[in-house]
Structures are given as structure tokens and as C-alpha cells.
Amino acid sequence: MAAALAVNWVLMSLLVRPEPRTDVSYTFFVEQADADNVQTITATGNAIQGVFDRPVSYTAGEGTATDVTTFATQRPAFAEDDLFRTLEDNGVEVNATPPDAPPPLWQQVLLGFGPTLLVVGLLLWFLRRSASGLSGGLGSFGRSRATRHQPETGPRTTFADVAGIDEVEHEVREIVDFLRDPQRYSRLGARIPRGVLLSGPPGTGKTLLARAVAGDAGVPFFSVSASEFIEAIVGVGASRVRDLFDQAKQVAPSIVFIDELDAIGRARGGSFSAGGVDEREQTLNQILTEMDGFEGNQGVVVLAATNRPEILDPALLRPGRFDRRVGISPPDRSGRLEILQVHTRHVPLAPDVDLAGLAAATPGMVGADLANLVNEAALAAARHHRDLVSAADFGEALEKTLLGSVRGIMLSPEEKLTTAYHESGHALLGMLTPGADPVRRVTIIPRGQALGVTVQTPQADRYGYTERYLRGRITGALGGRAAERIVYGEVTTGAESDLEQATQLARQMVGRWGMSPVVGPVTVLPRPGQEQPFGLDGVAPATRELVDEEVRRLVEECFGEAVETLRGNRERLDRLAHTLLERETVDEDEAYAAAGVARDTAPAAVARGEVPGARRAPGLPPDAEAVAGTGQPLLSDR
């Protein structure tokens, strides 16, 4: 503060400093007075200061000439001229107060110290006002940004809007029921869980379930994102956690929902930890204390959601904090039907739309995917100026969702033929490889980032995969490159995505699922998202090299099988490629017919044990079935 006052005083001194004057001779001054060029003067003794009417050139001694407006001079004591009468005759204003006299003392003090004192006063007032009643003196930074849910102020989400995850809904409903009627549980010695952790892939309905709890709980509900706790100022996160739980305790029983918990709940002591001053760790420590610390936390239930439960701190997951850990998986067929029914409640559907068939054709899709599918179908109907959303609109929406939007590019005839052979290689291997998923659609119309796409999806939901099936997927993924090798004797860059898919799948088989006789039934690769930095995963370099060798061997064997199969069916490959070149897009029946392969007796169908005739979901329109999706579809593109 002292430094600020000193700087303020210096600036004031510079601002009020008088304008510099030019010293002129008395003779020069008298000449200008006789010439009526003096505007005003001030005399103090023999010292005279004044201002000329017009700037005049003055040369002092042998110096250079300068233009003078304000001047100062000294009247000699022996001068006997009648200066005052001359000035009076010319109407010159004569003053007795020096023009360069400093301002009054009160003005100097006000200008010298006033601005600094004003700024300091405002700062102190702001700090005292913002820090009043808040812990840590952090002001508004320390307040929680959680939103208290008010169901009466807007549209309310309830459990009626949640579908396809009945077992998870039951777990959460029990918490709500306990808060509504605690006596029914407490008389049996049961206590309410301190916390419920919802985990699962993105889009499975974790946040939707929390909104349903807020709508049906009938108790105060606070929601906040975990990232909102963290600020650049150390200690703010912990202060916000304290403020949040203080608010929840004041209105207990209540529920606190923390979304994306992994933003602050990551395990401590990792390679990227910053030690005791880490703001994230301080925030986590405060949450641990509030959930189950020395003082306890009665009447507040913490509901949290995360996509990565494997990276959370063990102290956060122990009983007494998050007592229940509920995994939310993608819905099954009946669950997808229920979700579609929920999202189409306010969508006018045409009579030809069969939601049951659509649910059967979308294995692996989660709630968010199905909601987006319904919305895209409604948008398609609006584009076509329809009053009802038809089955064709759902087929178009599926195609856009899985394959991407059509790209407006023109391929040369040579490149178009190469793409046709590439996609025909994928499709033919999907028909002839035992156990492979059925071929649903083949197109050489550029979509998304691909010049062509072959879609293969399973007949029903799959939860486990055999080694033969996985090898078949690798073989099918390499079918495009194998076709190029057979037809042209060289390969192109179009197999980049196929090679990535085949290599990744082979690496998982060898390093995670123990499907290599050389590496053995051991896991040497971490799960996705659990990789350790700097290779600190305990795997020896020799083992890594062995995994790489086995991956290469597996991919090369599958590529050899693909080449051998296509070479033995070259006539079928040519027919399918030229049909595809002519029509650009073929569906399931057209693809099998063009290749000359009987759909129900193909090696792939026989190995799957399919019943002849049971190949199309009931009521599913052909366009929709052709692009039926799955959680892990084989989208072989070029």
C-alpha cells in the first residue's frame, strides 16, 4: 500500500507541475510590450512572468532561435522606464499572484492520495462482503455451484421415462423408497446406503436415471458436475464440497448427484500426482470426509455417475461411502423395444413402422443411440414433407447413423471398379467364412470417410465370442486387400481402416484373451483406459516382442485364408463386383444372389446354426435391415 501511495504522489506531482517558461531578456520583453504583444503578466518584486499574445521568435546569446509564448524575465533595479503605464495603455492584465503557485494543500492531498485510498477501500469492502459467512475466506469462489432441483418449475423426468434398465431402476428406486418411508426399513435394523455409483458406457442412461430420481424422490435433490469443483485457486474445490454438503445437511434427508465422478475421483498416488498440494486430491479428500468421516453424514445420499469406474480411488469405493455399485450395460432386445416406445411417444408413426423389428435389428445400441435414431427418422420425414414417420425414414436414419452422410465426390471408373472389388471381397468372405456375421448391405457410394462400406451384423445380441468367430472377423476385414491382391496383383491405401481393425482385434486375442498357444493363457495387455505411462505395466520387453510376433502371425494366417478363399471363388467375386459396380448399393438378398451363394446353406450360416427362413426381423423394412446396427459391427470400408 505504501508503494501505491508513493507512486500516486509522484504521478500527481508530474500532472500538476507548471508549464516550463522561457527566460528572455528584459529588453526583449519591453520591445514586445511596446509592440502590444503581451497578454498578461504577474510581477513579484522584480521578477516578471507572463504570456505573449502571439508566439515570437527569440534568440538567447548565440543559441538557436525558439518560438516563445510563456516567458519569464527580471526587471533591473536601475530601470527608470514607465513600464506600468505602457502595459496599462496596451490593456495588459497585470496580476500579483504567481501563476505557477502550487495548488492548495487540500487539493494536493486529495490528488496525491485519494485514488489509491479509494481503490484500497473498495477492495477491502468487496473482500469483507464476499467473505462474510463463508469458510476459508474464499468468497464466492468457495460456494458450491450445485443446482437444487425444483420439479414444480419445469417439465419433470420420472421413472416412467426410464426404460430398458429395469434391474438398475430397481436399485435406485429402493433409495427413493427409503427416503420416503424410512420407518419401514429402520425398524428392521436396515440403514440407508451412503452412496450409489452408476457406471457404464456412455449413453446407457446414467444421467437420465439421476433426473428420474430428482423427479420422483420427493426430497431435496442437488446436482453438480465433478469438474465444477476444481478451480485454479488451491482449496476452492474442498470449500465447494463443504458448502454443498452443508446445504444438503440443512434440508436432510436429501440426495446429492455428482456427474462424471472420475474428474476428481481418480486414484491418488499415481504417476501424475502432484502430491499434497494437488487441488484435485484435496477435493477428493474432502468428499471422502463428508461421505464417511469422523462426524458422519446422516440423511444425505450421494448418487454419482462415471464411465470409468476402474480408475476411481479405492477409498471412494469402500463400503460406507459408495455402498452400491450398479453397472449399466447396453439394453437387450426387449429393453431396446421399451426405449423406442418411450422415445416415440410423441412421434406420429406410420402403420408400416414395426418397433419390435427395429429393436431386433439394432443389437448393441444404447439409449442415446436409439433416441438419436428416432430423432433422425423424424428429421428425415420432415425433409420429405411427410405427416407421419415411416419405416423408410427409419431405414434412412439407420443408414445415416451407421454409415455417415453421403459425400458429394465423383470417383473415376478405375477407382470405382477397384472399390467394387474391395467391398466384394469383404462381402464374399462374410458369406463363405464359417460363423461370420451375415452381410446386410454393400455400397460403393462414398459415405463419411469411406469410399465404400460392407455392413455385417449378427442375427441376435452377442455377449461372448469364440476364437473361430474372431478369426473369421479378421479374415473378413482383410477381404478387401485380398481381393485387390488377386485381381490387380498389388494393394492400395484403401485398406487402412481394415488393417487397423484386424490388428487391434488380433492384439486383443493374443494379449488379453489368451488365444495364442505361444504366449499362453495369460493377460499381458491392459484394458483400454488402464494403460500405465512410460511402460510401467510389469510386462517384459521380450514378452512384448512375442506378442507382436504372434499378432503378425495371426494376421498373416488370416490374410492367407482370405486370399485362398477368394481365389477359389474368383467367378463369384467377379459377378458380385460387377453387380455392385452397376447398382452401387445392394442389400442382403441382392448380394447373395449376385454372388451365387444360397443364403440358408452358405458356410457362414451353417456354422452359425441358423434355421432356414428365419433371417429377417419381423416387419423390418428391407432398407432398415440392410444397415442393422450392432454394438461392435463389422463396417469394412475403403
What would your notes on this structure say?
- With 638 residues, the chain is an alpha/beta fold.
- The chain has 24 helices and 15 strands.
- It starts with a helix and ends with a strand.
What secondary-structure arrangement, pairings included, does this model have?
Layout: H1 2-15, E1 22-23, H2 26-34, E2 38-44, E3 47-59, E4 65-74, H3 83-89, E5 93-95, H4 105-131, E6 147-148, H5 166-180, H6 183-186, E7 195-199, H7 206-216, E8 221-225, H8 236-250, E9 254-259, H9 262-265, H10 279-292, E10 300-306, H11 314-317, E11 324-327, H12 333-343, H13 355-360, H14 367-383, H15 391-403, H16 413-432, E12 439-443, E13 453-456, H17 467-477, H18 479-488, H19 496-511, H20 541-568, H21 570-583, E14 585-587, H22 588-595, H23 603-608, H24 622-626, E15 634-637
Parallel strand pairs: 1-4, 2-5, 7-10, 7-11, 8-9, 9-10
Antiparallel strand pairs: 2-3, 3-4, 6-8, 12-13, 12-14, 13-15
